[in-house]
Fold this sequence. Notes:
Blueprint: E1 4-8, H1 13-25, E2 30-35, E3 55-59, H2 65-74, E4 79-82, H3 89-94, H4 99-117, E5 121-127, H5 150-169, E6 173-178, E7 181-182, H6 191-200, E8 205-208, E9 214-216, E10 218-219, H7 220-233, E11 239-242, E12 247-249, H8 250-261, E13 268-271, H9 288-291, H10 301-314, H11 316-323, H12 326-340
Parallel strand pairs: 1-2, 1-4, 2-3, 4-5, 5-6, 6-11, 7-10, 8-13
Antiparallel strand pairs: 9-12
Helix pairs in contact: 1-7, 2-4, 4-5, 6-8, 8-10
The structure holds nicotinamide-adenine-dinucleotide (NAD) and thymidine-5'-diphosphate.
Amino acid sequence: MSRTLLVAGGAGFIGANFVHYWLENHPEDRVLALDALTYAGNPANLLPVWNDPRFRFYPGRIEDPTVVNGIFRVEKITHLLNFAAESHNDRSLLDPVSLINTNVTGVAVLLEAARQHGVERFLHVSTDEVYGEIGAGAFRESDPLEPRTPYSAGKAGGEMMARAHRIAYQTPVVITRGSNTFGPYQYPEKLLPFFITRALQNRKLPLYGSGQQVRDWIFVRDHCTGIATALERGATGEAYNVGGGNERTNLEVTRRLLAILQKPETLIQPIGDPRGEAHDRRYALDSAKLHALGWKPAHDFDAALERTVRWYVEHESWWRPIVESEGYRAFVARYYGPYLGEEL
Ligand code: NAD
Ligand code: TYD
């Protein structure tokens, strides 16, 4: 049976990679992308599928019921996946309020549309950051949500709306909590693409604090297969961790990418910590529940990092207009200016 997926946030980093992945692997299905094209959304991320007759793009905001219901009226959507979010911790610290429109209200609007029109599955893409930080061991899905930044608090709020909807209306919700993701098409504000594109321009890399914070890195294709597994085989009402199993300190990751690019470590500029107390020290996920459904990551970290770095080297035409845009430069100046001064 052919399916029609509505992918909210489909012009962003993981959403676009998921659209590519799905159309490559499910020739009989249709995929619709709904995206507001915020600063992080980019139609160029969807260029490889733009002319595919099985693909269609709908511009609009997920918190706008007129937009969302309008799509449901003209399309027979079987699966709704929500990737849309204000997704950057640093920006959320500058503005902790407006993200609620997307990360909480938007989720509620999508859930309501799913209830009114009926879907087989509502998959909500969440993050490991909802658990907060962990000193030792790894988070399991039954652990409490203890977010510590405005971004992760918003994501936890979205999850709570999904959870309540499932209980109150039996909406067929499944949640995934992925770890730090990297790969092609990632907006150059997150650690890896920010540092890769800066190193390519011989600019300083602002490493927060000691650089000893630990993240569990996952290649974007593996994150997408994890989401696909939860979509197709996950149990309604359940959450699934999607971790790469690659714990690295920020300093290790930075040194590695500089080695791949053959750039000097003198580019690393340790700065104070702009996140302060809200800088989570370590994330780690126990993904046994998703492994039990047959999923495991297929990409080796070092090889995937090399492939990612190569992608940015070969796709300067993708990132150059972004890093030279007024909005991007204003953000970098506002956030990093106090630390980098003239080096900006
Ligand atoms: P991203 O910022 O690259 O993309 C977000 C997309 O959502 C953009 O295309 C943007 O235009 C769109 N969008 C934002 N607000 C919208 C709105 N109100 N209506 C419609 N579209 C809107 O983010 P990403 O890194 O691709 O993350 C996707 C999802 O995965 C997010 O929900 C995020 O919380 C989650 N996640 C990300 C990571 C990661 O490391 N990047 C890890 C775990 C989970
Ligand atoms: P980021 O990619 O923003 O993801 P998250 O906050 O979701 O983990 O940051 C990853 C880590 O890298 C985090 O510990 C903060 C650190 N970091 C820097 O040291 N310098 C930077 O310029 C950025 C963007 C992040």
